[in-house]
Amino acid sequence: MSDDYLQRIGGLIRTAREHKGKTQGQLAAALGTSQSAVNRMEKGQQNLTLEMVARIGEALDSEIVSIGYAGPMHLRVDGGRQLSGAIDVRTSKNAGVALLCASLLTTGRTTLRQVARIEEVYRILEVLASIGVKARWTNDGRDLELTPPARLDLDSMDEAAAKRTRSVLMLLGPLMHRAEQFRLPYAGGCDLGTRTVQPHLAALRQFGLEVAATDGSYHARVEAGVSPGRPIVLTERGDTVTENALMAAARHDGVTVIRNASPNYMVQDLCFFLEQLGVKIEGIGTTTLTVHGRPDITCDVDYAPAEDPVEAMSLLAAAVVTSSELTIRRVPIEFLEIELAVLEGMGLDHDRTPEYPARNGRTRLVDLTVRPSKLTAPIDRIHPMPFPGINIDNVPFFAVIAAAAHGTTQINDWVYDNRAIYLTDLTRLGADVTLLDPHRVLIQGPTRWRAAETVCPPALRPAVVMLLAMLAAEGTSVLRNVYVINRGYEDLAERLNSIGASIETFRDI
Ligand SMILES: CC(=O)N[C@H]1[C@@H](OP(=O)(O)OP(=O)(O)OC[C@H]2O[C@@H](n3ccc(=O)[nH]c3=O)[C@H](O)[C@@H]2O)O[C@H](CO)[C@@H](O)[C@@H]1O
Ligand SMILES: C=C(OP(=O)(O)O)C(=O)O
């Protein structure tokens, strides 16, 4: 683009931004870039890709730059290629969103290292920016710095962004320390059937948070001086409910015991983060957490969330389904070892290096090399459990692996109402999948995959499973509307291309 053209576009961006009443920092947070980059764009000193122009149009909802308004993103996959080489696992969506919410616990600055740059994180950042938190990507866009304002502007919360994710629910725990009353829009996210919020409300009620659900939002009111008189027993061993209880306990003046807590990976990351804030926690990695709260937290904090076990499982499944030898580096082994034990039983040939620590110094990582293997169906059904057990989000990947194995596998996704149903989409690519009931499928392998054109199912993991099957199917497949994948994976297409896949991204304009 010529300088003159860049300056004209820069001027249009500034006008549209000011018209929207957004600061450069808020636009930067929405784009996942730095405030200084937005400043350069507006001055015409930054080369702009069409993709960036499209995203700015979307972020500012602006007619002026609507030439590139970002339509839905799709993938075109040239399948049937083997993968090779090595790929690093990135940090997890689920720790990322919890830590963004947890940043509100301190009045100081929070630095999060190598946060996953994914749509789910962007939605929470939009919500945080709308209530006054300043977000800045530093260190070449790898790290995120969050500075809360002296007073949060909760009435200005970006409802549209909040409604696109369920993670926004995790603002309940931190916000109850910041405001006596607030409203939070009903959380959205993937279409996985009904997902209860009752365990969250029951746990937080014990700290004085009363929530009425009316007119599309939760009205929260905090009654001062209420304290859990005895251990909080969670009614479900859920991950985000445990995180909400932890964040409520972190600034509670006293010691809180949380029983039936989830010891899962994102909860552990949150515990390590809270420890950096000076909150003492006993029992990390177990189902009983004892939290020594600190009513006032004012320190700066610097934390590096750990790698994503579900991304590791996704990459492993990519290797299996394409019969490839692939090294997956930085695998948080504690959270994948049951899956690996089952896969070993199915005949998976793999090696792992000795363990080494993640950047947080706590999580144990290995590099995993997977080799082409003749797999047979497992004798027992595959079903998830709250940690420790096969991770609930890893179950869909067993579907595509079972399709590559000899014999019949039963998969029982008891957790979500809809997710097993989406696995029947694999039949479009040639798999033999029979739905027994809404929670159970039978998969008969091995599969002769064939290319197809289809829309993503409205759930993250089943959508990725479709993409992996397309990698295996010879010929050209098209996967439409991949926002749902971008919600949880950073640059997945580009990164798969770096190990031998051929995936092209395109958009409707
Ligand atoms: C942002 C985040 O961290 N999201 C994760 C988190 O969501 P989150 O913690 O929000 O999960 P939910 O509360 O929706 O729980 C998942 C489902 O499991 C059921 N359930 C859960 C625990 C239990 O002991 N009994 C029970 O029946 C719930 O009723 C629900 O239907 O945990 C889920 C389950 O690991 C994961 O799929 C999500 O990726
Ligand atoms: C169900 C999932 O996440 P969320 O809680 O963000 O919907 C997932 O990660 O597969």
Give an overview of the whole structure.
The protein has 509 residues and is α+β, with helices and mostly antiparallel strands. It has 3 domains: 3-70, lambda repressor-like DNA-binding domains (434 Repressor (Amino-terminal Domain), Orthogonal Bundle), CATH 1.10.260; 74-90 and 307-507, Alpha-beta prism (UDP-n-acetylglucosamine1-carboxyvinyl-transferase, Chain), CATH 3.65.10.10; 93-303, Alpha-beta prism (UDP-n-acetylglucosamine1-carboxyvinyl-transferase, Chain), CATH 3.65.10.10. It has 18 helices and 23 strands. Strands 2, 14, 15, 16 and 17 form a 5-stranded mixed beta sheet that branches. It has a 4-stranded mixed beta sheet with strand order 21-22-1-23. The chain has a 4-stranded mixed beta sheet with strand order 4-5-3-13. The longest helix has 18 residues, at 3-20. The site of uridine-diphosphate-N-acetylglucosamine has 16 residues, from helix 5 and helix 10.
Features:
about 500 residues; alpha+beta; 434 Repressor (Amino-terminal Domain); UDP-n-acetylglucosamine1-carboxyvinyl-transferase, Chain; five-stranded mixed β-sheet; 23 strands; about 35% helix; about 20% strand; binds phosphoenolpyruvate
Helix content: 25-40%
Q: State the distance separating the first and last CA atoms.
A: 20 Å
Low-confidence stretches: none
Radius of gyration over alpha carbons? 23 Å
What is the overall shape? globular
Number of domains: 3
Beta-strand fraction estimate: 15-25%
What is the number of E strands?
23
Give the CATH topology of the largest domain: UDP-n-acetylglucosamine1-carboxyvinyl-transferase, Chain
Bound molecules: uridine-diphosphate-N-acetylglucosamine, phosphoenolpyruvate
The class by helix and strand makeup works out as alpha+beta
The CATH C-level name of the largest domain is Alpha Beta
Calculate the mean pLDDT score and round it.
94
Give the CATH H-level superfamily of the largest domain: Enolpyruvate transferase domain
Q: What would CATH call the architecture of the largest domain?
A: Alpha-beta prism
Number of helices: 18
